[in-house]
Amino acid sequence: MAKSDAILIFEDDVVFHPQLLERLEEITLPEDWGIFYLGCSHQRSPLPVGPGLVRAEYALDTHAFAVKAPYYRKIMAGLSRREGEACEHPRASDWFLANLHKEIPTYACYPNLAWQSHNPSDLIGAAYSNYTPNGEQRSCPHVMAGLQAEMWKVSPWQHSEPEEKEEEQRPAEPPSPKLGVLFLTRGDVCHPEIWREFATAAGTDIRIFSHPKSRTEAEQGFLSGSVIGEAHETAWGDISLVRAMLALLREGLKDETLTHFAFASETCVPVKPWTEIRRRLRIDPRSMIHFDDCNSMKPLHRDRIQKVRDLPQGCWRIHPQWMLLDREAAACILEHDVSERFANMSVPDEHYFGSILALRGFPEWEKIHRQHVTWVKWKEDSLHPMELIHTSPQLATELTDFPGFFARKFPAESDVGKWALHRD
């Protein structure tokens, strides 16, 4: 140790992040560091320091850590100390090392770049690991809540609580639902007459906003006058779709009377009359997003979203691009634009919105109805849904029974309008 500036210590059951070297090159350790964990299990909330780095307050596990030369003797003495120390596992050296964190500046990679594999332990006589296969700590997850959002400079969501009312006062009536329909299209809608009838019946209860690839074509049809100013050159499966959707949402939120926002494509049609949609939104005004988390999503979707650097596995979400957001969820998503972090993944429009809500701590299990708002029929093992030309009585019945409000994919030649599902 006399000739070294620092030493790096590994245990034999360590697992390394697949991008270990690349991630380490991006981390700058402060000059005062004494202990540096490549991965650990925090028992107290750490403090953000910089990209990929936190200051550890009290952390366990010694599977991969570095010791700076000036602190070597003190640390070795601490690891060797046994007498007079109360510890659940007397042979667990990491507990003694953790006691030195208040004296020695200690830093750690976050997310973890090294962690313990699932192997038999000499300490407890059984196979276990303190970490998920992705390297997230299993113990004390609450101490890490909101940490990644803070490191991304994304503040936790402060949702408003209803004011307490005096007993004799009747609760205020919720605002009457008003819907912003946010069209992300190539040109005009495929069924302008259906949409025109739907919009006329709704009157001032709905507003149309659009982001077309061809502004000229859109301005010659139903979408005339609805095209927003902010424009992005969009491509399938690209981050440009997320940015176009965010632009639509920003424009829609400017209208303070709108309570909800629904994304729609040119092949989308309403399959419920506005009176029914309004009644349903009065009864249950929550957002409608049919999402899966990291535990229930398919391997394909996990492979996609793991390319988003530093996004905790607990915040991974997959959902349809076509969803309905209430005003609170829309504001939560728009407060911080971190779309650039999703730019290197495939099909980010099916991950961004739900993942950001989870990252910011939006109460999704309370305020999101886990329900499809737009019906669609998928081809087996296909990335694209089926186009439906002929609408049979059986399909019309299925659309009538569907608990959501819209359906796709109906091209211009489709006969879906013959059933007048959008009329009272």
- CA-based shape: elongated
Q: How many discrete domains?
A: 2
Oligomeric nature of the chains: single chain
Helix/strand-derived category reads alpha/beta
Tally of contiguous helical segments: 13
Structure summarized in a few sentences:
With 424 residues, the protein is α/β, with parallel strands linked by helices.
Description of the structure:
Pfam families: Branch. With 424 residues, the chain is of the alpha/beta class. It folds into two domains: 6-144, no CATH class; 179-419, Spore Coat Polysaccharide Biosynthesis Protein SpsA, Chain A (Alpha-Beta Complex), CATH 3.90.550. Helices cover 24% and strands 17% of the residues. It has 13 helices and 23 strands. It has helices at 20-25, 72-80, 93-98, 147-151, 192-202, 215-219, 239-253, 274-283, 299-305, 327-334, 352-359, 364-367, 393-401; strands at residues 6-10, 14-16, 35-37, 41-42, 47-50, 53-55, 59-60, 64-68, 106-109, 114-116, 119-120, 127-128, 179-185, 206-212, 260-264, 269-270, 287-288, 292-293, 317-318, 324-326, 368-369, 374-375, 406-407. The strands form eight sheets. Strands 1-8-3-9-6-5 form a six-stranded mixed beta sheet. A four-stranded mixed beta sheet has the order 14-13-15-20. A hairpin with a 2-residue loop joins strand 5 (47-50) and strand 6 (53-55). The chain is elongated and about 80 Å long.
Structural features:
424 residues; alpha/beta; Spore Coat Polysaccharide Biosynthesis Protein SpsA, Chain A; 2 domains; six-stranded mixed sheet; four-stranded mixed sheet; elongated; transferase; glycosyltransferase; BC10-like; glycosyltransferase activity
